[in-house]
Design goal:
Blueprint lengths: L1 H29 L32 H9 L5 H5 L3 H7 L7 H6 L2 H8 L18
């Protein structure tokens, strides 16, 4: 008789544990999942020009520098030609370019030439002591 009682007890215990486990699973499955907010496409940047120039055509500017310039909002030769070498170098400190390099490689002058703008050489502006 004890064996039968133990068997019934084990079966009932197993039944209740299984029933509890299924209820827990149903609660997890039926729990409302917060849907991810809909992803809205980014509006076009209003200050970005409609067309951009290949800034890599300038000697000394490679793809990495072009990406950094584009991140600053400089997409055309005219925009680059309007920059100040010292301020541009400060803005491009993440890609480790110096004003000396910008002036040496004549980025601004080359950009002005590509944009068909009058070339104002900021490289030799002012008296650096070497001009006659």
């Amino acid at each position: 008789m004890r064996r039968v009682f133990r068997l019934i007890l084990v079966l009932m215990l197993g039944y209740y544990i299984t029933e509890w486990w299924f209820n827990q699973r149903e609660k997890q499955v039926a729990a409302p999942v917060d849907p991810a907010p809909p992803v809205k496409p980014a509006p076009p940047h209003s200050t970005a020009p409609r067309s951009s120039d290949p800034l890599t055509d300038i000697d000394g500017i490679g793809p990495a520098y072009e990406r950094a310039l584009n991140a600053l909002g400089i997409h055309t030769f005219a925009q680059l030609a309007a920059q100040n070498a010292d301020e541009l170098a400060t803005s491009l400190s993440s890609v480790r370019v110096t004003a000396v390099r910008i002036k040496r490689d004549q980025w601004l002058e080359q950009a002005a030439a590509h944009a068909n703008l009058p070339v104002s050489s900021s490289r030799w502006s002012g008296n650096d002591g070497n001009s006659a």
